[in-house]
Write a structure and sequence with these properties.
CATH class: Mainly Alpha
CATH architecture: Up-down Bundle
CATH superfamily: DsbB-like
Shape: globular
Structural class: mainly alpha
Strand content: under 5%
Mean pLDDT: 78
Number of helices: 4
Length: 132
């Protein structure tokens, strides 16, 4: 029963993350860059895989773990890229916005996404440990 708490926590966190990304896009008028969209698609995948009805099955948890790990990787790269001077970014990636807005000076949107994916991954791992 305790492992179900972690899955529900991860599902609610992914729901809040997806809702926040849509709120930032449609109400705050932030145009998402390609990396933001990749993170959103992975978070929607985690949201679907951890749906409370089937979120306790190990197959879905394994897929959600893979999606969370991929999302963490993209979020980490995105947060590192935002601190890179614009002149040194390869021309392929220059379509990303030059300035990133966030909730505060330290918590930008890519860092918030990185934290969300990290907490979801920890919750999935804890639920798997509690099952054994």
């Amino acid at each position: 029963m305790f492992c179900g708490f972690f899955i529900r926590f991860a599902w609610i966190l992914s729901l809040v993350a997806v809702a926040s990304s849509y709120f930032a896009e449609f109400f705050l008028k932030y145009d998402p860059c390609p990396l933001c969209l990749y993170q959103r698609y992975l978070m929607v995948g985690v949201l679907a895989l951890l749906f409370p009805v089937w979120g306790n099955h190990s197959f879905f948890k394994n897929l959600a773990t893979i999606s969370s790990t991929m999302g963490m990787t993209i979020s980490y790269d995105h947060s590192i890229l935002q601190d890179t001077p614009y002149e040194t970014i390869p021309s392929l990636i220059k379509q990303l916005p030059q300035s990133y807005e966030g909730f505060s000076v330290f918590l930008t949107l890519p860092v918030a996404s990185l934290l969300s994916f990290s907490f979801i991954l920890v919750a999935i791992v804890l639920s798997s440990i509690k099952e054994r």
